[in-house]
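Working notes for the structural subgroup meeting. M.R. asked for a predicted model of this chain before we commit to crystallization trials. I am recording the input and output together here so anyone reviewing the notebook later can reproduce the run.

Input as submitted:
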Amino acid sequence: MAIVKETALVYCENQFGLVDGKTAAGLVRHSEIYNIVGVIDSSLAGKDAGEELGDKKSDIPIFANLHEALSQLSAVPNCYIYGKAPLEASISIDERSLILEAMAKGMDIINGLHQFFSEDPEFVHMAVQCGIQIKDIRKPPQLEDLHIFSGQISRVNVPVIAFLGTDCACGKRTTAVELNKALNSLGIKSIMIATGQTSLMQGARYGVSMDALVSQFAIGEIENAVIQAFDNEHPDIILVEGQSAVSHPAFMSSVAILKGCMPDGVILQHPPAREFRCDFPNLAMPTVESEIQLIEAISQSQVIAIALSHENLTPAEIPQIIKDYENRLRLPTTDVLNYGCQKLVQTLCHYFPKLNQKIKREGLDTIPLLAMR
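Returned structure, recorded in token form:
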């Protein structure tokens, strides 16, 4: 039975298309739960959200403010999504007023911040008055429902692939989502494990927002999500979204993901034109080589492919960069938003030949791969 999507307006003032607007960008590109009818960002008002991301036209308009959006849309959307992902934990006074206004219009509030709106007395009171719901996506399970690592991950006998990166907001989730869609379209049953608020908003059925967990349970929650997906869905392959980077000094999520899912392979995401870690201008980006060495030193996993983010690159630069990476690292390298997922699918089929038995060959172009390491 087809899922009836709720209509949603995404708030992303002054951040759409930028690093802190990654939640809004992800929802514009893909959502199994929401039908995105507009984005709020006054700096880009009048533009098409898809085109602003460098993609094809999406017919999702960008509005200057909530009033303009509601005056131009044919109906009040079901939901108002806070679509920014800043380091700051709390919203501004102006943003608070907009959320209250959206409530007054009858819109449910979808929140991906660490600041839980469902525990804010003013928001709770307003929600009751307006008969709307508040959903805090990052809110972790109750303590009694959390899991510690059990070792049961060892009985998962299908490939588990982790999507790690060299930084935050560099395309790990996007590559995982695109590859998940591609595999399923080819007849390979693929299930994606969410580890952040955006992928949960996009409709991932398994997973949890890693950075909201008590550290003791982070590894166990990833393991449990993989086991649940394996037991319930009987997939051919499981893809696990990464967070941050193993080498990043500010965050621990990737280490917990690497330990919890014990992946059979890693696809490493990297933005070649990025000089410093996002939000940390004093921290230089690591090299792909150093990140691979670190991942393979602290786990039994092997990096099997590189996926690139084309931020701040021209279309003419990307092919040569891909060629350079493949020549230097001897790893298949691609940019899924520009070139699709064929090369990654071919890589998976090379490492895990059983996937070849499931694949619909007519849907996959033949792409010769470089010799594996």
